[in-house]
Amino acid sequence: MQQKIDALLKEIEQLSVTKAEEIEALRIKYLSKKGEITVLFNDFRNVPAEQKREVGQLLNNLKVAATDKINALKESFENSADVNDKEDLTRTAYPVALGTRHPLSIVKNEICAIFARLGFTIAEGPEIEDDWHVFSSLNFADDHPARDMQDTFFIQRNPDVLLRTHTSSVQSRVMENSQPPIRIICPGRVYRNEAISYRAHCFFHQVEALYVDKNVSFADLKQALLYFAKEMFGADTKIRLRPSYFPFTEPSAEMDISCNLCGGKGCPFCKHTGWVEILGCGMVDPNVLEACGIDSKEYSGYALGMGIERITNLKYQVKDLRLFSENDIRFLEQFKSAH
Ligand code: DAH
After folding, report:
1. Backbone phi, then psi, for 211, in 5-degree steps?
2. What is the CATH number of the domain that holds 175?
3. How many domains does the chain have?
4. From the alpha carbon of 281, which atom of ligand 1 is closest?
């Protein structure tokens, strides 16, 4: 009996398997009702009384060893099975999720691309400006309301430092530093002292365009505007110009486009007029040309400026301006398919 126990113990210690099913076969072989170890237990009654204590202990050890071994085999197998099932090393990699462009960047890029096709190049200027470039050089009278603290963030009086209220300041900087022909488009952020609401913010974005050369006429301006409107909002888009006033242009106009939501029929968005205003424009005032060192007898030019938020609202029907600066991923992710 003891020899048999010893032999079985050695055998069990050396057990190994290659498949999960083999483990169950081993359990049956040793531990089931007719298993080899169970049979030994059944024979135990034939062991002479004086050996029962010693043999009983050996038998128990054998059973524990066999159970442990089989459990250990099962465990090692489960672990390795785990690895094989979950890590398929032949699987193609998950695609890397790309971020999305901000809707204002998408629209800004589109505006710049349209004007680039007309030969305009991008010019940029500082957001922290001085009175000369934002107001004086652009023919603003000393008592113009835009010079009021209520509209403009003044940072310092002397020397004067302020946040630009429009990208027209880039016009004067470029004209000061270069001679015609000038054909530039200036995208950028501007600041105004406004209470924040769904329709106004203390900062927003504009694009300014300036063309100065010999014999630039209002007809050139109108043609560029029509081209822009059709490229931006679709070939069926109509434009209309309404007389307006800006200190830096003479004559000045505001441009409406046929409402791109209702196609000009009238809807709540266009207040049932069929038209929506999108930009200001005009012929550069000779005073501005002269202030910036350009001979107004030789050259003329046109300028226009528009709010990027406004164009974006028109294109994507964003109803609350604040969404643009809140960085809410649920809002931004909606522009995944745009570029
Ligand atoms: N600077 C004007 C604004 O902030 C927009 C503008 C109007 C720009 C007419 C122009 C222009 O260049 O000609 O509202």
Report:
1. -130, 120
2. 3.30.930.10
3. 2
4. 13
Q: Is the CB of 180 under 6 A from ligand 1?
A: no
Any atom of ligand 1 within 6 Å of the Cβ of 190: no
The residue whose C-alpha atom lies closest to atom 5 belonging to ligand 1 is 305
| pLDDT tens-digit map of 200-238 | 999 999 999 999 999 999 999 999 999 999 999 999 999
Distance 62 CA to ligand 1 centre (A): 95
Domain that holds residue 11: 2-86
Of 187, 171, 196, 186, the C-alpha closest to 106 is: 187
| Pocket perturbation via mutation, ligand 1, pick of 115, 135, 166 by most ligand atoms within 8 A of CB | 166
pLDDT reading at 40 higher than 90: no
Residues 258, 128 within the same domain: yes
Question: Who has greater pLDDT, 263 or 140?
Answer: 140
Q: Which of 92, 137, 83, 126 is nearest to 248 (CA)?
A: 137
Please indicate, yes or no, whether residues 113 and 184 belong to a single structural domain of this protein. Answer: yes
* Mean per-residue pLDDT of the chain: 91
Task: Indicate the residue among 61, 86, 111 that finishes a domain.
Answer: 86
Cβ of 188 below 6 Å from ligand 1: no
Q: Residue 85 pLDDT more than 80?
A: no
Judged against a pLDDT cut of 60, whether residue 34 lies above it is answered with yes
137 — pLDDT class (breaks 50, 70, 90): very high
Q: Is 147 in the pocket of ligand 1 (CB under 6 A)?
A: no
Using a 6 Å cutoff on CB, does residue 305 contact ligand 1?
yes
Read off the pLDDT band of 190 (50, 70, 90). Answer: very high
Alpha helices in the chain (DSSP H): 2-13, 20-31, 36-43, 49-86, 103-116, 131-134, 168-177, 218-233, 286-291, 308-316, 329-332
Stated pTM of the model: 0.73
Q: Is the CB of 285 under 6 A from ligand 1?
A: no
Distance of CA 159 from the midpoint of ligand 1 (Å):
26
pLDDT score at 150:
74
CB 137 within 8 Å of CB 288: yes
